Amino acid sequence: MPDSLKEMLGPLLENRGKMLRPRLLIACASLAGGKRVRESEALFRAAAAVEMIHTASLVHDDIIDEAPRRRGQPSLHLAWGRNEATLAGDLLLARAFALLSCPDSEKGLLRLMARSVALLCRGELYQMNQRYRWELTERQYYRLIYFKTAQFMASCCEAGGWIAGASSAQRRALRDYGCNLGQAFQIIDDLYDYVGYPQQLGKPVGQDLKQGLATLPIIHLFKTRKQYLMMVRRAPPNMALPQELQKTLREAVKMNGSLDYARAAALRRQEKAVRALQFFPPAPERQLLAKMAEAVTGPLSGSVGV
Asked: Which residue of 29, 126, 159, 195 is 20 to 30 Å from 253, comparing CA positions?
């Protein structure tokens, strides 16, 4: 790798965040395959690959969204330039698929992750087309978060099954767990955009409304309080909402119980994720995965309405 790319990517890769996706892959492989896969080279190659894919998607998303910060640091495109950041993200993808295509790698794993990256791209395009469309339905919202978040987490979990040599039924159970976990994760992330703090997120809050993105809290508000939908309809189309209107909507979401509604939806998906693990016999890895699901909604315990 050229020195300039090392300098660009070094801080981003060192500031690794939660490392949730590789942790899911390793835990699912251990659950399905036991001790024989826990220290396999293929397992750690795949774990590194999924984190590279995830990081590349963040780099590219930040460019598209013009996001100023990521993981508490200036976004790569602001620090180095859009063209340089785009190429850095492309390089991460290339390195990831080089790891996945090693001769001893499971072929099903490579197909799985290639399809998942294609769906990530599809999700980003879908989101771009839905900006400033304030009448987005819950069904459309769930379709969007499936493409952008849930299906990739599901693929990471299923990948663990492939590495462990799991049966198709076991892989389906792992994928079901990951999909529900991913939906809960994204709903909570969308909630934090209303009630979180920049230091918690590693990125600014309030960006969804600013960028014209309708997430579950605002969808619920517009569905139950039509007067707020009328307000945004009167705003200039395909443009950021006025600051005062954004403030009004954020307050209305809290007062209306829309945050509690979204949190309840996240909890239901967390519970479905844990139920999917019942396909496997009791094991420390199953308990770990259940705790990982519970941790997704844990920070927002109790009411978040006010």
From this structure: 126
pLDDT digit string (tens) for 117-167? 999 999 999 999 999 999 999 999 999 999 999 999 999 999 999 999 999
DSSP 166: -
Q: What is the domain range of residue 267?
A: 3-298
Work out the burial of residue 18: count CB atoms within 10 Å of its CB; fewer than 13 is exposed, 13-18 middle, 19 or more buried: exposed
As a whole number of angstroms, the distance between CA 85 and CA 83 comes to 5
Distance CA 160, CA 162 (A): 5
Q: Are 50 and 21 in contact (CB under 8 A)?
A: yes
The predicted model gives 84-109 an average pLDDT of: 89
**Environment class of 258 (CB within 10 Å of its CB; exposed 0-12, middle 13-18, buried 19+):** buried
CA–CA separation, 52 and 50 (whole Å):
5
Residues 160-181 have pLDDT tens digits of 999 999 999 999 999 999 999 9
How many domains does the chain divide into? 1
- For residue 285, CA distances in Å to 48, 150, 272 come to 20, 21, 17
Secondary structure (DSSP) of 203-218: S-SSHHHHTT---HHH
**Which CATH number do you get for residue 201?**
1.10.600.10
Assigned domain for 303 exists:
no
Domain membership of residue 305 (yes or no) is no
Distance of CA 14 to the CA centre of its chain: 19
Residue 24 in any domain: the answer is yes
Taking Cα atoms as reference points, which of 53, 46, 55 lies closest to residue 23? 46
- pLDDT(102) > 80: yes
